[in-house]
């Protein structure tokens, strides 16, 4: 890709095009006469981007949640719609290392606790609830 951009005598003449397919995730990136496959991927975490005009004050410009990955023709497409690594080396395999797995909750237990909380809000004594839950066990 760098060679295609550099081969033009005038860098402003190099034509760039990005066209998406029907699914909105797979696309073709064209630079000059060459085309490369590309994919729109979700990042594992939102990245804030900042800009400065005087090297001391930072101004937030955007929250970046997606990226377009351009690859060579013979490189395999990434699996899924979420890129498991972030933009920088410390975020490698970020989804597995930095974020908790969703807990496995028993739906019956959640419903029982919800009913107990509603009863407490309506004025039922906690000791009655404890006695009734021990009797059902």
TrEMBL record:
Xref: InterPro entries: TAF7 (IPR037817), TAFII55_prot_cons_reg (IPR006751)
Protein name in the entry: Transcription initiation factor TFIID subunit 7
Pfam families reported for this sequence: TAFII55_N
Any single Gene Ontology cellular-component annotation: transcription factor TFIID complex
Domain TAFII55 protein conserved region: 1-125
Residue ranges, annotated region (Disordered): 1-20
Localization in the cell: Nucleus
GO biological process: transcription initiation at RNA polymerase II promoter
Main location: nucleus
Gene Ontology molecular-function annotations: translation initiation factor activity
Similarity comment text for this entry: Belongs to the TAF7 family.
Compositionally biased residues, Polar residues: 1-12
Organism domain of life: Eukaryota
Source organism: Zea mays
Keywords (A to Z) from UniProt: Initiation factor, Nucleus, Protein biosynthesis, Transcription, Transcription regulation
